[in-house]
Amino acid sequence: MNKDNLKNKTILGFKWSFIDNIGKSGGQFIIGIVLARLLTPEDFGLIGMITIFIVIGQSLTNSGFGQALIQKKNADNVDFSTVFYFNILASITIYLLLFLSAPLIANFYNQPELTSLIKVICLSFVIDAFGRIHNVHLEKELDFKAPSIVGIVSVTISGVVSITLAYIGFGVWALVANTILRSTVATFLFWWVSKWRPLLTFSKNSLRQLFMFGSKIMIAGLMTSIFQNIYYLIIGKLFSAQSLGYYTRATQFKNLPILTITSVVQKVTFPVFSKIQDDDVKLISGYTKALRLLSAAILPLMAFIIIGSKPLIYIVLGEKWLPVVPYLKVMALFGWMYVLHMVNNQVITVKGRSDYYLQLRIIDKVLIVVSILLTYRFGIMAMIYGQMGATILSYYVTNIYLNKIIHIPLIYQIKNISPFFFSSGIMLIPSLILSNYIANEYLNFFSTISLAAIIYILSLWILKVEELILGIEYAKKYLARFK
Predict the structure, then answer these.
(1) Nearest-5° Cα angle at 175, 41 to 17
(2) Lowest-pLDDT range, 10-14, 148-152, 164-168, 203-207?
(3) What is the rounded CA–CA span in Å between residue 365 and residue 359?
(4) Rounded CA separation 57/92 (Å)
(5) How many angstroms separate the Cα of 479 from the Cα of each of 297, 453, 454, 475, 476?
(6) How many CB atoms lie within 10 A of CB 282?
(7) Would you tell me how many other CB atoms lie within 10 Å of the CB of residue 109?
(8) What gap in Å lies between CA 444 and CA 315, rounded to an integer?
């Protein structure tokens, strides 16, 4: 693929990945809002209790081979077919294990209803396995249009059905139906839009080659999934389902902007970075652009959450969800660091150092365990502060490894994100002061966020930040089409 063609596909990929994540994540967010008004914190808490088992199953059934297929330069149809059949077998195995373990999990939480919830919701593993490699094949070819359409349609259909079920009184089962139906619709559509079809072949040699890379990614992904959700397990065990419901909603509000924006970049940059993995100059250039773009978007969004979390929760979810606010504010203080982790880990992965990636995930999880052991006795808020400390230390260690592989020191990253960090910080003080003088929640939210946005943009303009200037020029060209 020549340079111009790669550039055009990258730009097009960003466009459709953006549409996908805005449509899919935005749709899920809106659906979640409606469901939160129809259901109770306890309903969300029950799903939160089994979330860790769901993500473990998803990590094991994904098995890291999707990234291995994208990273492998000469992956052929035999490779894709082998992984397709392996994923199906793995998903069935994992589902049966969780099916048999469901009563034990229910006993652990002393929630008998969890037995049937687990047996049904985990069917999504098997359903997803039949369409996952079709999606990977499309991404390998930098075709993000079809997956975008699939994601938006599946979220819309499953959302409408789950809201209907919640309205007529199905309770927590509306959340289960949302997961199952989304997987079913997406898998059906992937078979419809993708030209790829599996061969009737299974190559042990192919599986062995891909396993060398994919197994480390799988183990790292598994550990990440466990420890990102281990708080659900501990809070669900030590506290009430209602408290866990508040914690899960805070996490989802914090994750919405982070995962939406980073997914746009991550989905496109991983295959693009993989194609230029042997050219350090181009790779550093691409890394820098991705880092600055993500920082420009994520840092102000986290500041917006700190400023407007109380009126936002009141307006969107209602008064019954206000205990979410203090959790959400603290999470926003360090949530943006996920962006830096993601970009750094991508470079480490595309350089073929899945061993480093695995080591970093182990260190990361050790830090999380230590933080939990030190804080769980003091309540949920203390655990969130402990999570913040673990995240900061993990980011520092990741930079040591990154600098070993390719010369991207910590000071280089700080220099690139500093204008966005400064501009996001400077808009906090006047906006927080203003919020104390406005009683009406609607007026409070829109006035403080508007003030913060104006200060952020003016600050970037004064600092002559390139991304803002390019964004303004692009907006002018786009608007000129309508003249």
Answers:
(1) 110
(2) 10-14
(3) 10
(4) 10
(5) 21, 21, 21, 6, 5
(6) 15
(7) 18
(8) 11
d(CA 445, CA 442): 5
* Position 183 pLDDT exceeds 80: yes
pLDDT at 100: 94
The Cα 265–Cα 395 span in angstroms is 19
**Rounded Cα–Cα distance for residues 2 and 360 (Å):** 34
Q: Using CA atoms, how far apart are residues 426 and 407, in angstroms rounded to an integer?
A: 31
Percent of the chain at pLDDT above 90?
Answer: 25
- CA-based nearest residue to 127, from 94, 174, 78: 94
Amino acid letter, residue 77: N
Position 161 scores a pLDDT of: 94
pLDDT of 15 reads 57
Residue 103 has pLDDT above 60, yes or no: yes
Q: SS in 3 state form for the chain?
A: CCHHHHHHHHHHHHHHHHHHHHHHHHHHHHHHHHHHHHCCHHHHHHHHHHHHHHHHHHHHHHCCHHHHHHHCCCCCHHHHHHHHHHHHHHHHHHHHHHHHHHHHHHHHHCCCCHHHHHHHHCHHHHHHHCCHHHHHHHHHCCCCHHHHHHHHHHHHHHHHHHHHHHHCCCCCHHHHHHHHHHHHHHHHHHHHHCCCCCCCCCCHHHHHHHHHHHHHHHHHHHHHHHHHHHHHHHHHHHCCHHHHHHHHHHHHHHHHHHHHHHHHHHHHHHHHHHHCCCCHHHHHHHHHHHHHHHHHHHHHHHHHHHHHHHHHHHHHCCHHHCCHHHHHHHHHHHHCHHHHHHHHHHHHHHCCCHHHHHHHHHHHHHHHHHHHHHHHHHCHHHHHHHHHHHHHHHHHHHHHHHHHHCCCCHHHHHHHHHHHHHHHHHCHHHHHHHHCCCCCHHHHHHHHHHHHHHHHHHHHHHCCCHHHHHHHHHHHHHHHCCC
Is pLDDT above 60 for 83?
yes
Picking from 217-226, 412-421, 436-445, which range would have the lowest pLDDT averaged per residue?
A: 217-226
**C-alpha to C-alpha distance for 138 and 201, rounded to whole angstroms:** 20
**386 in Cβ contact with 375 (< 8 Å):** yes
